[in-house]
Amino acid sequence: MNSSSILDQIGNTPLVEAKVLINKPYVKLLFKMEGNNPGGSVKDRPAYNMIKSALERGEITENTKIIEATSGNTGIALAMIASLFHLDLELVMPENSTKERVQTMRAYGAKVTLTSADVGIEGSRDYAEAKVRDEGYVMLNQFGNDDNWKAHYKTTGPEIWRDTDGKITHFVSSMGTTGTIMGTSTFLKEKNHQIEIVGVQPTDESKIPGIRKWPQEYLPKIFNPKKVDQVIEVSEAEARNMAKELAKKEGIFAGMSSGGAVAAALKLIKTMDKGVVVVIICDRGDRYLSSDLFD
């Protein structure tokens, strides 16, 4: 009998070709379906790599009190993986995070602390950093931890290269912690430096969960702007509408940051005559059902 751990199911997510959203015979748009990870998002990859690597280095043990600020998907992934390693985990997130996220983290056994919505994820980060400074907690720090981007260097990049037979010409990813784009860019550029790496950010005043335009003092330490060839901005309305279009037209049920990434990919494709574009679909839409995204 062949059996495996749930952790063995992280990664090797499928690439699915867009059939309706584009109509250019020499351009392929491929969706990297990260919602197929067991925790439901792309964040399973860095969460596993951060915890596993910290355990291997002896930086955390079952007696360590771990704390992490999250806008959702990383927290769910950390909660799932921490439970398997019997780790004590507290997750901090803004109080306006969707109910499904909070409930899922608690279902995996994590303690969840909600901070004021007025100060957003920055406020959650400040709270977690105070606990580290004053109470001896340990933070994995997805925003500054090289094990975040290295997860994508080891897995996401190689999978995309393999599954496109090395034919990828453009890679499009929303930018939050920036781990996905940093690690995937590093790998793909080693294979072919002409592959165009496209980051997605919200327009000013737009709020898109999972995509950020960080103030300088909160810019993720793992971010290296040299690894991104161009940035395409999308509005909240564009991200929302595309999330709905993805479900209706391509049968892909995903969140707003995935909608934003696909909206950016379609802007890019308007400028192209040929190529293979891979875009990250970072999670599943059922994580947003208590929000107004699909109303």
Automatic annotation (TrEMBL):
Biological pathway: Amino-acid biosynthesis; L-cysteine biosynthesis; L-cysteine from L-serine: step 2/2
Keywords linked to the UniProt accession: Amino-acid biosynthesis, Cysteine biosynthesis, Pyridoxal phosphate, Transferase
TM helices/strands, residue ranges: none
Coiled-coil segments: none
Cofactor: pyridoxal 5'-phosphate
Keyword Transport: no
Domain Tryptophan synthase beta chain-like PALP, residue spans: 7-283
Pfam family membership, one: PALP
InterPro entries found in the cross-reference section: Cys_synth (IPR005856), Cys_Synth/Cystath_Beta-Synth (IPR050214), CysM (IPR005858), P-phosphate_BS (IPR001216), TrpB-like_PALP (IPR001926), TrpB-like_PALP_sf (IPR036052)
Class in the EC hierarchy, top level: transferase
EC number, UniProt record: 2.5.1.47
GO molecular function, one term: cysteine synthase activity
Reactions accelerated catalytically: O-acetyl-L-serine + hydrogen sulfide = L-cysteine + acetate
Gene3D superfamilies, A to Z: 3.40.50.1100
Family under the similarity heading: Belongs to the cysteine synthase/cystathionine beta-synthase family.
Protein name: Cysteine synthase
Species of origin: Galbibacter pacificus
